[in-house]
Specification:
The protein is an all-alpha fold and 162 residues long. 79% of the residues lie in helices and 0% in strands.
Length: 162
């Protein structure tokens, strides 16, 4: 079904939980909260998806996205261990984990549009206006979302200082 190999299904189903978990955390907390149960689910799911991307990818850009996802994921989850619970650590953590979610959604949207509906996908060309529009929309969401997150963190810091 959908031309996905058994390993491709492991990749897809392994990374799938990260999507609703990230959406929930963004809606509830305004960011991905790494030191929580949902944060642990996000981390494991993202790691499965990014690591298996190297095994199922067919485009060179997929390897770069997998490597960048792992890099941002590890940076986001590890920065507090390096810098301690500082303001800068919270900013870096938030930015890195938001970028990791973006790096999950770009190939997810691309592959979904290239495979669904089965046999007659919405997109057959990587330069399709629909696909490029969806990817541009995801980039706009990232830019607006990061801006809102940074403003929110700055206000939290200002209120804590008062």
């Amino acid at each position: 079904m959908f031309g996905i190999s058994p390993l491709g299904w492991v990749h897809t189903l392994g990374s799938l939980p990260a999507i609703p978990v990230a959406i929930y955390m963004f809606a509830r907390y305004g960011r991905i909260v790494p030191r929580s149960t949902l944060g642990a689910i996000y981390f494991v799911s993202m790691l499965i998806g990014a690591a298996t991307a190297f095994l199922v990818a067919h485009q060179p850009v997929s390897y770069a996205i997998g490597a960048l996802t792992i890099l941002f994921l590890l940076a986001g989850y590890g920065i507090e261990r390096i810098l301690g619970p500082t303001r800068i650590a919270r900013y870096v953590e938030t930015i890195c984990l938001s970028v990791s979610a973006f790096l999950l959604m770009v190939p997810t949207a691309t592959e979904t549009l290239r495979r669904v509906p089965d046999g007659h996908p919405f997109v057959t060309d990587l330069k399709s206006p629909l696909l490029l529009g969806v990817q541009a929309g995801l980039l706009a969401i990232l830019v607006v979302g990061l801006t809102a997150q940074i403003i929110y963190l700055a206000r939290q810091n200002r209120n804590a200082a008062n």
